[in-house]
Amino acid sequence: MIGRLRGVVAERLPDGSCIVEVGGVGYEVFVPLGTLGRLPTPPDPVSLHVHTHVREDQLVLYGFARAEDKRAFRTLLGISNVGPKLALAILGSMDARELASAIASQDKTRFKKIPGVGKRTVERLLLELKDKLSFVTAHVEIPAPKANGTAKPGDAADGPALGQVTSLLVNMGFKAAEAEKAVATIASDAGGDATVESLLRMALKQLG
């Protein structure tokens, strides 16, 4: 199996693939549309994390700029009725971090303009991916503080602040039990002037 390629982009093709030349051998690799346009031109090298998709009648390479995008692609393939082309289309519209954010916030609108993604597919993605993208949730943008003041960046590490961190973790896709355990672990180490943002980062570190 091919897991990674480093070479130069010899050609970009209209079907969304490119030819990566490595040691005189050209590998045809399909990449998300957002990645295709950003690939470096020769002589600058390109490094792609590759998923080798094998079926009885074909072997296809799918390449990604970041390892987490490759993992997200493989996670998408585990969803019923989601094949490589649809998974690639989804990651062409949003990368792994944006996908994790959309799933955590249950944002259906992010999927509306993706070819092949209908209402039922969106509902299935939101449901089945809820607990499967934890490897990128540490990069999800922290929700903005609410106008009523509950989650202010300067809130002290008291009960309400820790409760807010627990809620944020659950909204990011972590299970309630995992979130509560992580918050309980950091509670004794948190200083009185710790902010919600710093507490959240501490909890995410505990969750790995």
Summarize the structure in words.
Residues 137-158 have low confidence and may be disordered. This protein has a five-stranded mixed β-barrel with strand order 1-2-3-5-4. It is α+β, with helices and mostly antiparallel strands and 208 residues long. The chain folds into three domains: 4-64, Nucleic acid-binding proteins (OB fold (Dihydrolipoamide Acetyltransferase, E2P)), CATH 2.40.50; 67-138, Orthogonal Bundle (DNA polymerase, domain 1), CATH 1.10.150.20; 143-203. It starts with a strand and ends with a helix. It has eight helices and five strands; from the N terminus they run E-E-E-H-E-E-H-H-H-H-H-H-H. Strand 4 and strand 5 (58-64) form a beta hairpin.
What's this model, at a glance?
The protein is an alpha+beta fold and 208 residues long. It has 3 domains: 4-64, OB fold (Dihydrolipoamide Acetyltransferase, E2P) (Beta Barrel); 67-138, Orthogonal Bundle (DNA polymerase, domain 1), CATH 1.10.150.20; 143-203.
